[in-house]
Amino acid sequence: MKAKMFRALLPLAIVFTLVSCSSDSSEETSPDNKLVTTYNYNDSELKLIMAVNNYRQSIGLNTLEVINHISYKSEGHNIYMIDNKVINHDYFQQRANNLIDVLGATRVAENIAYNYQTPESAMSAWLNSPDHKANIEGDYTHFGISVTVDETTGKKYYTNMFIKKK
Q1: Residue 16: pLDDT above 50?
Q2: Phi-psi region of 94 (alpha: psi -120 to 50; beta: other; left: phi over 0)
Q3: What is the pTM of this model?
Q4: What DSSP character marks residue 128?
């Protein structure tokens, strides 16, 4: 019975994983507007940073500068998804508003992924999704990445946020 339920819910989980959000403007300001300057990157995050920039460079685009504050906000979303057992873009506008207010972003986009074992497999999935690929190839200047493991299940949650600064 569990196997049937899993097979029925798997396509839905894949669809949610491949959904992408972006924003060009601010709706309201976030009360949490303190700049975070330190972030400890794990191996998966460092590999994804390299993968995104290597891909962009391979197609003639600028590489993106990593900002620790963006990675911190991405990690916060991963923790939210783990705590609430969801895979979604809930509160994207609040994260985007924070990056607009704190960093002066003029555009913000976000990719998420769930349960990919390696950074390479998450990157491949993003590149095979038109919306995620558009974010990776977008007119951005900076980004941040978080890969967080759910201690209970061992599954990985990925959030990758992009911004454009003037």
Answers
A1: no
A2: alpha
A3: 0.82
A4: T
